Amino acid sequence: DTNIVSLVNMLCKKQKKSLHQVNMDSLLLPEYRELREVTFSGLKDMSHEQLVKRINVLKKFNRIISTVIPLVNFEMIQRSLSTAAVLMDVRGLLFQSIADDILRNIIKTTN
Question: Which is it for the CA torsion 108, 21, 58, 35, positive or negative?
Answer without folding.
Answer: negative
